[in-house]
Amino acid sequence: MTTKLISLSDAVAKYVKDRMMIAGGGFPMARQINSFCKEILRSRRAGAIKVQDLFWVEPGIGFGGSLLIAEGVIDSIISTYAGHERPGLSKITRDALEKGLPRKIKWEDETNLSLNMKIMAGALNLPFIPSNSGIWGDIRATQLWDGKLSYCKNILMDDPYGSGKKTALLQALTPDLTVVHVQMADARGNGIILGSIYYDYWFGRCGRNILLIADYIVDTDVCRRFPNLVAIPAPMVSGVIPCYMGAWPTNSPGVYGQDLEHMAYFIKTSHDRAALRDYMEKYVYSWSDHQDYMRLIGPEKLELLEADPAGVLADPLREGILTEGQVRELLSGTDRK
After folding, report:
1. What is the pLDDT of residues 128-139, one digit of tens each?
2. Where are the alpha helices (DSSP H) in the chain?
3. For a tag site, which of 24, 28, 49, 228 has the least CB within 10 Å?
4. Count of alpha carbons within 13 Å of 116, Cβ hemisphere only?
5. What is the rounded average pLDDT for all residues in the chain?
6. 192-206, pLDDT tens digit by residue?
């Protein structure tokens, strides 16, 4: 059986390079690629990768993006928002923008529509796409493009069909790497998303390389029985990373809920540089493997998050979830009988 499964550390080592554009899926409190962001920092500290100036694209800079900003590895951002929804706004992003702590970042504002359209254009292999969004206001002003980054803001033109209207030409976004957290994926690379898809239909089609982080690895028969849930098809995907609770403390509907208590604690610590440093040491760098990571979350918290009412979304698919042993065999390259 051909498998695209790859470990988290191997995926970061193979696909993450300095100065590259990385797009992260999910939304500020839903299916964020938090495990991937943590592993970038862990691999960087271990000397496995060298990154200092990432170009980050995300619908809303939430938990994972904040960790990267806090460690000074992001140079430029394209986004629509910086915050954590109900728990509060991102003090880390604000400090980087207003005070240059720990470094000054460049920020390109987009609307939800304009960013979605740029991603869609990239997925359709178009160089640009026309839009009414991007004509008015200061959204037209560029913040990033200084000749060093391959990104240019909207270009306005008259309707060539003679209506007299102006339209904005939005440059397509084709990230070097796109990473999307999904609830389930098979070893071939078919990604199942339960609940809201947000930007991820197009994110799952617009990267030069596309990685899926999956809470569960399922048998391909699950994807065949529920093709309507396969939001990202296998031919688009470069690798699948098995990582249960990989979106924590954000949610993964059908698998676990959002950890509002932990997010409130994170936001509180982000107001004090010493407390934030202690937080990073404990929750990003201290654990050694996935079992250690789960112990860090704690069995009581796991039980509480797994009891989320949205768990019913995954009930019809649970019988197709592979065991940890089966996943280890696939990761080692051993075909499953």
Report:
1. 999 988 887 777
2. 8-15, 34-46, 63-70, 91-98, 112-123, 200-206, 220-225, 260-269, 273-280, 290-297, 299-306, 324-331
3. 228
4. 11
5. 93
6. 999 999 999 999 999
Question: What is the distance between the alpha carbons of residues 73 and 281, in angstroms, rounded to a whole number?
Answer: 16
- What whole-number distance in Å separates Cα of residue 20 and Cα of residue 213? 19
Q: pLDDT at residue 337 above 70?
A: no
Residue 202 structure tokens: 């197009």
At residue 177's C-alpha, the angle toward residues 75 and 280, to 5°, is 55
Query: Is the predicted pLDDT of residue 336 greater than 50, yes or no?
Result: no
CATH of 8-128+173-331, picked from 3.40.1080.10, 3.40.50.40, 3.40.50.150, 3.30.2130.10, is 3.40.1080.10
Alpha-carbon span 176 to 44, nearest angstrom? 19
Distance CA 74, CA 143 (A): 15
In whole angstroms, give the CA distance from residue 87 to residue 173.
30
Residue labelled with tokens 């992003």 = 93
Closest CA to 123 of 180, 204, 6: 204
Burial (CB count within 10 angstroms: exposed 0-12, middle 13-18, buried 19+), residue 40: buried
* Least confidently predicted of 3-12, 127-136, 247-256, 308-317: 127-136
Residue ranges covered by each domain of the chain: 8-128+173-331, 129-171
Residue with tokens 């019809």: 316
**One-letter identity of residue 252:** S
- Give me the mean pLDDT over the 253-276 stretch: 97
